[in-house]
Design a protein that fits this description.
The chain has nine helices and 15 strands.
Length: about 325
C-alpha cells in the first residue's frame, strides 16, 4: 500500500485548546472536510441541527462548549456544533502484546460514512497536564477518538450497538438521539480527551473510562505500557462491562445479556478478522484486508505507548489517501 505520491499527514503542535488550534493550523483542510461532510445536508437543516446541539451543550453546562463556540465563530458557517457532538461510525480494534511480548499495542481501524476524513486527517501532538499525547484527529474537532500518550497508554473509542431497535432505522436513530439529549454527561469523545489530558497511567485511565457517566453508550479500548495492560470497556451511560486481556472490539456487545443492533459493515466479520492479530509497525498495513478494510474505512493506526510510537494512514474508497505516518514522540 506504499505510494510515494500520496500526501503526508500534517503533524500539528498544540499547547492550548485542541479544536481552535488545529483549525487555525489547518484551516483549508477543515473547510474542505466540512464541504464534503455537509454537501448533502441543506444549510437550513444544518443550522437547525447546530441549534439543537448547542442548546443541549448549554443546558447541561458542558465544559467543551466555550471551545466549540470559538470553533464555530472561527468557521463562520453552520456545522461546528452538530459535528462536534454527533458521531455515526464503525470501528475495529485489536489490543494485545507486541511481537516481542514486552509491551501492549493497539491496532485501530476507523470507518465513517463521511468522505474526506481519511484524506484530511491530521496528527495533533498535544501538550497536556499529565504529559504529551498524540491524537489522530481533524481540524476543529474538540473530542478525541483515538490516540497515544507515550509512557502512559493508547486508547480508542468505538461506537456502541444501537439499543433496543424496533426495526425502522430512522425511528431507532431518533429514539437513541433523544436519549442522548436527556443526559447531562460528557460525550464519550470528550471524556476520552479528558482522560488523555489528565490520567497519569493505565490504571487511572481505566478507572475513569469505566466509572465516569457518559451521554451515550460506547466501547473504549485501552492498552497500557506492559503486555498485561489490555482492556475493552463496554459502556452504557452509568454502567460498564470490563473485558481484561488481549482481545478485539468492533461494534457489537461482548457482554452477556446486553442487547443492541450491531453498527457498521459486518461487525462480527471484522471482529473475527482481527482476532489473534499481533499488531506490528508495518508501514504497508498488510493486515488490513476485507471486511476490516471496506468502502467506509478512513483511518488505520497502530500505537505502542511504551515505545511512544504511532504508525497511521488515511484511506478513501478502500485505498490509501495519505502516505503512512511513522512518528515517535
Amino acid at each position: 500500500m506504499l505510494n510515494p505520491s500520496l500526501p503526508e499527514i500534517p503533524v500539528v503542535n498544540i499547547d492550548g485548546d485542541l479544536g481552535p488550534q488545529t483549525l487555525e493550523a489547518e484551516r483549508d483542510r477543515a473547510e474542505k472536510l466540512l464541504d464534503a461532510a455537509t454537501s448533502q445536508v441543506p444549510r437550513t437543516a444544518l443550522t437547525a441541527l447546530d441549534f439543537v446541539s448547542r442548546r443541549w451543550l448549554s443546558r447541561w453546562d458542558h465544559a467543551s462548549l466555550p471551545e466549540i463556540d470559538k470553533v464555530a465563530d472561527m468557521l463562520g458557517r453552520p456545522g461546528a456544533y452538530f459535528l462536534s457532538v454527533n458521531y455515526e461510525w464503525g470501528c475495529t480494534c485489536r489490543i494485545g502484546p507486541s511481537p516481542d511480548g514486552d509491551t501492549a499495542r493497539l491496532a485501530r481501524v476507523l470507518d465513517w460514512r463521511t468522505p474526506g476524513l481519511g484524506r484530511f486527517v491530521i496528527a495533533a501532538r498535544v501538550a497536556a497536564p499529565a504529559g504529551q499525547y498524540l491524537a489522530m484527529t481533524w481540524p476543529g474537532y474538540t473530542g478525541v477518538l483515538q490516540g497515544m500518550a507515550p509512557g502512559r497508554f493508547s486508547a480508542a473509542l468505538n461506537q456502541a450497538p444501537m439499543r433496543q431497535p424496533i426495526g425502522l432505522y430512522a425511528i431507532d436513530w431518533a429514539a437513541n438521539k433523544a436519549r442522548v439529549w436527556s443526559r447531562p454527561h460528557p460525550t464519550p469523545a470528550h471524556l476520552l480527551r479528558e482522560v488523555f489530558e489528565s490520567a497519569r497511567n493505565f490504571t487511572e485511565a481505566k478507572a475513569r473510562l469505566t466509572e465516569t457517566a457518559i451521554a451515550s453508550p460506547c466501547i473504549f479500548v485501552l492498552a497500557g505500557t506492559s503486555d498485561d495492560e489490555c482492556v475493552v470497556i463496554e459502556r452504557e451511560e452509568e454502567r460498564a462491562q470490563v473485558h481484561s486481556g488481549a482481545g478485539v472490539a468492533a461494534n457489537h456487545w461482548r457482554a452477556v445479556g446486553w442487547r443492541g443492533l450491531a453498527r457498521g459493515h459486518d461487525s462480527a466479520g471484522r471482529s473475527r478478522a482481527l482476532n489473534g492479530l499481533t499488531p506490528r509497525f508495518d508501514g504497508d498495513f498488510a493486515w488490513l484486508e476485507p471486511p476490516v478494510l471496506n468502502p467506509l474505512t478512513r483511518l488505520a493506526m497502530v500505537a505502542d505507548a511504551a515505545e511512544g510510537r504511532v504508525v497511521a494512514q488515511g484511506f478513501e474508497k478502500e485505498a490509501p489517501a495519505t502516505a503512512p505516518l511513522d512518528l515517535v514522540l
